[in-house]
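Quick one: structure for this chain?
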Amino acid sequence: AGTLERKDASGWKTLDHLSQGTGMDHVLNRNEEALTLTAGQSRTIEYRMRLSQTNRPGPLVIEADAPAPHATDIHDMAKAEWHAAAVDFNGPRVSTVSTTDLRAGTTPTEFGFTATSPRGTADLRPEVVVSSPYGLTEEDIVLEAKSGDGWTPVPLHDDCGALTATTPTGLEAKHSGDSAEYLFRITTTKPTQHLPNVQVGARTGDHLATLQYISPR
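Got it. Here's what it folds into:
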């Protein structure tokens, strides 16, 4: 979500859309951007992009492609990549991600993390994102959050191929200033050799934290 613009003689022109990259993005505005270069000639083309606040901060790779007129695949184009980062200075940060022997199976395994928010913890909500390349669905996974002396089930919902859980406020296992510590546990309801990939994050209002991976064993 956001805008992509290209500079021409009249100023900045908004292009059709800003996509996440489907592998064929170089075709989208190809005819309009076509230009002819003689041997040894070069041309500088300027772009600028604005990300919507609905995007989560994190690493960002921007790729520039220059296909030849006869190009039919990636072998007929020049390519360059720029590794950048999207940063939300008002968003929460996740740190101290811990796990107690995270393994695949029907025995619950616990993991925890600390979230710190420059906006305070009043509206701080922890997030857990679960994804599996092995066909596990929300019916196959039980996610629970530590609440007081017990465990509270946390529902997962499908979000673009991943299972996401955003828990309510007030689930802090420990609280200190602008930081809160959370404890979760995950179980697969059927035997499997593969535990889903687990990422943790947090949000305060529309501000999101960069997701952090928990590596399964």
